[in-house]
């Protein structure tokens, strides 16, 4: 049985290229007690992975040169020595870019193949969708009529945040970085306002104008001056879900800037950081809600699926030239069962 | 009858000085129906009042230049045209820095003089005690065995925070600004560790050494570099109650410094600002707990009482140079009845 893997060959200088990746053939190991053999079905390629290819001191652990790239994968259990994960189970998890891999099961999330297409579990029903769901609903706790601002609004998480906030009856303002994205948020996803931070001039004024009644919930994917502009318009008892801080990921020193603490004090506001696995016990509830909303047409979701394991690097590199619309995935194999 | 009052003469630029206050003689007004004449007994001076001296937007309305300063006062009804507040009743409320004042009664809280010394109702059974109670228990939510750090530990709020945390079975570390305060926290109040931030050298090292298992709860009265040192030692799912930010109260520009957001993200930590009146509906429950703990000797309480109405500004200014241990009050008059 062939078992291709993709290693990090070298760290990119600036824009990554195919030279940064290396294909290698690996043995399929003999299965030991307490492990499963997984066949990758869909592989997720995401912009955040660019950050992990660097070794700059950062809030994201870097990949190791000479080791496989790891990311979101939907895989099928094709041999099992874990009773809870019998053969035929489909799971999602953080797995290597590798056709077959052996895993001890920890952190793998079984998925219900009847709920939605399997690929959705890397997007709207997977980490990005669940991240949006928990951050917005469990931390942001939006009430009808409140104003919700989301930064990184056109991303895999931000698009879901904004749409759920609309479902909950909120006024939704998105911040993103291109006119195409702004048009998409307003025209396709129903955001009330969307701000192109690259062209708007003063982001503080733009946020202030877009939020005449102040801001009750902020879902933050970015940090930096967009967040500072939001902080200045927070209402009393505002809630801030800190989901990403991409402004600082490549920072080699401790990030500094405006202090948020005095504002949280003045406004009796709450700020909470989180990662999706903090809410693992409620994944099933969330996936059920999300899939219902998708089926009812209340949540729009787009994906671009590239075929073939060998095309993973190309699909990843395509993210940076804007080739994809919506979530970019690679289909690696058909399900066996 | 003399009736001195203290007005806000001007708004401070940076640190307040005695120039910002003005003494004036006022008439004692004739009492009308539905009013009481109050004689101030104890006046509370508190760091938050610095904020009200500015006209920047805040959670409390700014004082008006040329009008009396208003704050927590324990006063005696010396003449009454309100049946529910007969002569001799002692009340606490938000009242002007003024020897005698006329009041319609609304918002005045009658206090039981047999429960505790009258001054306690401006401290452990008043706003500072309630602030400690709600910030620690409702936001910090400490569990037995967890590490709790409190800054401004020797203040009216901090001393109560640390003692309640000990009652809850936590390891308690206080940060304060003199050797006397450190000794008080450790020897009298049972703090596990106390750090003199003025002499410790590296506050980061001191915090790190005092918290070998990291920090689960941080009750912050101060902000600034003490907070930064705490942030670097937070455990996953830490909770931070932002109660005061005295490091910035005298700041004339937007405070900047280390960004806490990336740390909250990395640690899935929660930070919440609050003021005591956010929890008004639970005041009775809290006061019952606090007075029981005081009676059982589980909560020790210290006051610094300055004598004389004319010394109120000086007592207030002393807060910013760390002169007081425990709650700073000014005794203005003896009770008549």
TrEMBL record, chains A, B:
SUPFAM superfamilies: GroES-like (SSF50129), NAD(P)-binding Rossmann-fold domains (SSF51735). Keywords: Oxidoreductase. The keyword Oxidoreductase applies. One of its GO terms (molecular function) is oxidoreductase activity, acting on the CH-CH group of donors, NAD or NADP as acceptor. It comes from the Bacteria. CDD domains: PGDH. Residues 17-330 form the Enoyl reductase (ER) domain. Coiled coil: none annotated. The keyword Oxidoreductase applies. PANTHER family: PROSTAGLANDIN REDUCTASE, PROSTAGLANDIN REDUCTASE 1. This is Alcohol dehydrogenase. It comes from Pontibacter korlensis.
